[in-house]
Design a protein that fits this description.
- The N and C termini lie far apart (47 Å).
- By secondary structure, the protein is mostly helical.
- It has 2 domains: 69 residues, Tetracycline Repressor, domain 2 (Orthogonal Bundle), CATH 1.10.357; 127 residues, Orthogonal Bundle (Tetracycline Repressor, domain 2).
- Helix content is 61%, strand content 0%.
- InterPro entries: DNA-bd_HTH_TetR-type_CS (IPR023772), Homeodomain-like_sf (IPR009057), HTH-type_TetR-like_transc_reg (IPR050109), HTH_TetR (IPR001647), Tet_transcr_reg_TetR-rel_C_sf (IPR036271), TetR_C (IPR011075).
- This is TetR/AcrR family transcriptional regulator.
- Keywords: DNA-binding, Transcription, Transcription regulation.
- Pfam families: TetR_C_11, TetR_N.
Protein backbone atom coordinates (compact mmCIF):
# COMPACT_ATOMS: atom_id res chain seq x y z
CA UNK A 1 0.00 0.00 0.00
CA UNK A 2 1.32 3.42 -0.94
CA UNK A 3 0.83 6.02 1.75
CA UNK A 4 -0.02 9.62 0.92
CA UNK A 5 3.39 10.69 2.16
CA UNK A 6 4.99 8.50 -0.52
CA UNK A 7 3.15 10.00 -3.49
CA UNK A 8 5.33 12.43 -5.44
CA UNK A 9 4.02 15.94 -5.68
CA UNK A 10 1.31 15.48 -3.06
CA UNK A 11 1.10 18.47 -0.77
CA UNK A 12 1.82 17.65 2.85
CA UNK A 13 1.08 20.06 5.65
CA UNK A 14 3.95 20.77 7.92
CA UNK A 15 3.10 18.31 10.67
CA UNK A 16 6.48 17.23 11.85
CA UNK A 17 8.51 16.25 14.88
CA UNK A 18 6.87 16.61 18.26
CA UNK A 19 3.58 17.80 16.79
CA UNK A 20 3.22 14.74 14.59
CA UNK A 21 4.14 12.46 17.49
CA UNK A 22 1.53 14.19 19.63
CA UNK A 23 -1.15 13.49 17.03
CA UNK A 24 -0.08 9.86 16.67
CA UNK A 25 -0.02 9.37 20.44
CA UNK A 26 -3.49 10.90 20.65
CA UNK A 27 -4.64 8.49 17.95
CA UNK A 28 -3.51 5.53 20.07
CA UNK A 29 -5.26 6.99 23.11
CA UNK A 30 -8.54 7.27 21.20
CA UNK A 31 -8.02 3.82 19.70
CA UNK A 32 -7.46 2.23 23.11
CA UNK A 33 -10.48 3.99 24.60
CA UNK A 34 -12.98 3.70 21.76
CA UNK A 35 -11.89 0.86 19.50
CA UNK A 36 -11.15 1.03 15.79
CA UNK A 37 -14.78 1.11 14.64
CA UNK A 38 -15.63 4.14 16.77
CA UNK A 39 -12.38 5.98 16.16
CA UNK A 40 -13.01 8.94 13.87
CA UNK A 41 -10.82 11.61 12.36
CA UNK A 42 -13.10 14.13 14.10
CA UNK A 43 -12.35 12.60 17.50
CA UNK A 44 -8.60 12.60 16.90
CA UNK A 45 -8.65 16.14 15.53
CA UNK A 46 -10.62 17.41 18.51
CA UNK A 47 -8.42 15.67 21.08
CA UNK A 48 -5.20 16.72 19.34
CA UNK A 49 -6.47 20.27 18.70
CA UNK A 50 -5.82 20.17 14.99
CA UNK A 51 -8.20 20.68 12.07
CA UNK A 52 -9.73 17.64 10.44
CA UNK A 53 -8.68 19.01 7.06
CA UNK A 54 -5.06 18.97 8.20
CA UNK A 55 -5.37 15.35 9.26
CA UNK A 56 -6.86 14.34 5.91
CA UNK A 57 -4.11 16.13 4.00
CA UNK A 58 -1.53 14.15 5.95
CA UNK A 59 -3.40 10.84 6.33
CA UNK A 60 -5.83 9.82 3.59
CA UNK A 61 -7.87 7.48 5.81
CA UNK A 62 -8.09 6.56 9.46
CA UNK A 63 -6.41 3.27 8.54
CA UNK A 64 -3.36 5.24 7.35
CA UNK A 65 -3.43 7.26 10.56
CA UNK A 66 -3.72 4.22 12.83
CA UNK A 67 -0.94 2.34 11.05
CA UNK A 68 1.39 5.33 11.36
CA UNK A 69 0.45 5.68 15.03
CA UNK A 70 1.25 2.01 15.68
CA UNK A 71 4.58 2.28 13.87
CA UNK A 72 5.46 5.44 15.79
CA UNK A 73 5.53 3.53 19.06
CA UNK A 74 9.03 3.11 20.35
CA UNK A 75 9.94 -0.49 19.63
CA UNK A 76 13.25 -2.28 20.24
CA UNK A 77 15.34 -2.51 17.08
CA UNK A 78 17.20 -5.56 18.39
CA UNK A 79 16.06 -8.59 20.40
CA UNK A 80 16.56 -8.61 24.16
CA UNK A 81 19.91 -10.07 25.16
CA UNK A 82 20.06 -11.14 28.81
CA UNK A 83 22.19 -14.23 28.25
CA UNK A 84 19.38 -16.79 28.57
CA UNK A 85 16.24 -17.70 26.67
CA UNK A 86 14.11 -17.31 29.79
CA UNK A 87 15.54 -13.90 30.59
CA UNK A 88 15.09 -12.71 27.01
CA UNK A 89 11.45 -13.81 26.90
CA UNK A 90 10.61 -12.15 30.21
CA UNK A 91 12.38 -8.95 29.15
CA UNK A 92 10.49 -8.92 25.84
CA UNK A 93 6.98 -9.76 27.00
CA UNK A 94 6.84 -8.09 30.42
CA UNK A 95 6.71 -4.37 31.05
CA UNK A 96 6.04 -1.40 28.80
CA UNK A 97 5.16 -2.41 25.24
CA UNK A 98 4.84 -6.06 26.21
CA UNK A 99 1.92 -8.30 27.05
CA UNK A 100 1.63 -6.92 30.58
CA UNK A 101 1.20 -3.36 29.26
CA UNK A 102 -2.52 -2.60 29.63
CA UNK A 103 -2.46 0.18 27.03
CA UNK A 104 -0.72 -2.03 24.49
CA UNK A 105 -3.27 -4.78 25.07
CA UNK A 106 -6.12 -2.30 24.66
CA UNK A 107 -4.66 -1.15 21.36
CA UNK A 108 -4.23 -4.72 20.11
CA UNK A 109 -7.78 -5.55 21.12
CA UNK A 110 -9.03 -2.52 19.23
CA UNK A 111 -7.37 -3.44 15.94
CA UNK A 112 -8.71 -6.99 15.93
CA UNK A 113 -11.93 -5.61 14.45
CA UNK A 114 -10.05 -3.74 11.75
CA UNK A 115 -8.10 -6.85 10.79
CA UNK A 116 -11.29 -8.83 10.19
CA UNK A 117 -13.10 -6.08 8.29
CA UNK A 118 -10.45 -4.09 6.43
CA UNK A 119 -8.25 -6.23 4.19
CA UNK A 120 -5.95 -3.35 3.30
CA UNK A 121 -5.43 -2.45 6.95
CA UNK A 122 -4.85 -6.11 7.85
CA UNK A 123 -2.20 -6.52 5.17
CA UNK A 124 -0.23 -3.45 6.24
CA UNK A 125 -0.67 -4.18 9.96
CA UNK A 126 0.71 -7.68 9.57
CA UNK A 127 3.53 -6.60 7.29
CA UNK A 128 4.71 -3.48 9.11
CA UNK A 129 3.76 -4.16 12.74
CA UNK A 130 3.38 -7.88 13.42
CA UNK A 131 6.12 -9.27 11.17
CA UNK A 132 8.95 -7.16 12.66
CA UNK A 133 7.89 -8.26 16.15
CA UNK A 134 7.79 -11.89 15.01
CA UNK A 135 11.28 -11.54 13.51
CA UNK A 136 12.65 -10.20 16.82
CA UNK A 137 11.06 -13.08 18.71
CA UNK A 138 12.47 -15.62 16.26
CA UNK A 139 15.93 -14.07 16.68
CA UNK A 140 15.70 -14.67 20.45
CA UNK A 141 15.10 -18.37 19.92
CA UNK A 142 17.71 -18.72 17.19
CA UNK A 143 20.33 -17.14 19.43
CA UNK A 144 19.31 -19.47 22.28
CA UNK A 145 19.74 -22.39 19.88
CA UNK A 146 23.25 -21.18 19.09
CA UNK A 147 23.98 -21.11 22.84
CA UNK A 148 22.85 -24.72 23.11
CA UNK A 149 19.67 -23.98 25.10
CA UNK A 150 17.35 -25.36 22.43
CA UNK A 151 17.48 -28.81 20.89
CA UNK A 152 18.23 -28.81 17.14
CA UNK A 153 14.94 -30.42 16.11
CA UNK A 154 12.65 -28.00 17.98
CA UNK A 155 10.05 -26.60 15.57
CA UNK A 156 10.50 -22.87 16.13
CA UNK A 157 7.79 -21.97 13.62
CA UNK A 158 5.30 -23.51 16.07
CA UNK A 159 7.01 -22.67 19.35
CA UNK A 160 7.92 -19.00 18.78
CA UNK A 161 4.31 -17.73 18.47
CA UNK A 162 3.11 -20.00 21.30
CA UNK A 163 3.84 -17.57 24.14
CA UNK A 164 1.94 -14.56 22.75
CA UNK A 165 -0.73 -16.92 21.41
CA UNK A 166 -1.43 -18.45 24.82
CA UNK A 167 -1.35 -15.15 26.67
CA UNK A 168 -3.61 -13.36 24.18
CA UNK A 169 -6.03 -16.30 24.35
CA UNK A 170 -6.18 -15.91 28.12
CA UNK A 171 -6.76 -12.16 27.79
CA UNK A 172 -9.23 -11.88 24.91
CA UNK A 173 -11.14 -15.15 25.14
CA UNK A 174 -11.02 -15.99 28.84
CA UNK A 175 -11.01 -12.44 30.18
CA UNK A 176 -7.91 -12.83 32.33
CA UNK A 177 -5.53 -10.01 33.15
CA UNK A 178 -2.04 -10.49 31.81
CA UNK A 179 0.52 -10.37 34.59
CA UNK A 180 4.22 -11.04 34.92
CA UNK A 181 3.31 -14.20 36.80
CA UNK A 182 1.23 -15.43 33.85
CA UNK A 183 4.09 -14.78 31.44
CA UNK A 184 6.49 -16.64 33.74
CA UNK A 185 4.16 -19.63 34.04
CA UNK A 186 3.80 -19.95 30.29
CA UNK A 187 7.56 -19.61 29.79
CA UNK A 188 8.44 -22.09 32.54
CA UNK A 189 5.69 -24.64 32.02
CA UNK A 190 5.23 -24.53 28.23
CA UNK A 191 8.02 -22.85 26.29
CA UNK A 192 11.14 -24.07 28.10
CA UNK A 193 9.98 -27.71 28.35
CA UNK A 194 9.06 -27.64 24.66
CA UNK A 195 12.56 -26.63 23.55
CA UNK A 196 14.69 -28.28 26.25
CA UNK A 197 17.70 -30.22 25.04
CA UNK A 198 16.99 -33.94 25.41
CA UNK A 199 18.40 -35.26 28.65
CA UNK A 200 18.61 -31.78 30.16
CA UNK A 201 15.51 -31.00 32.26
CA UNK A 202 13.83 -27.71 31.40
CA UNK A 203 14.09 -26.77 35.06
CA UNK A 204 17.83 -26.29 34.58
CA UNK A 205 17.08 -23.29 32.38
CA UNK A 206 14.97 -21.61 35.03
CA UNK A 207 16.90 -19.14 37.12
CA UNK A 208 16.45 -18.10 40.70
CA UNK A 209 14.05 -15.34 39.65
CA UNK A 210 11.22 -17.92 39.60
CA UNK A 211 11.23 -17.56 43.36
CA UNK A 212 10.49 -13.83 43.21
Amino acid sequence: MIRPSQLPGLHRPRIEGDRELEILTTTLDVLAESGYDRLTMDAVASRARVSKATLYRRWRTKANLVIDALLAQKEPSAPADTGSLRGDLLATFCGMGGLTDARQIAVLGSVVTAITRDAEFAEVFRRDFICPKADLNMAIFERARERGEIRPDADLDVIVPALPGIVLHQIFLLGETSTTDLIRRVVDQVILPAVAVRGAPAESQIGSETKD
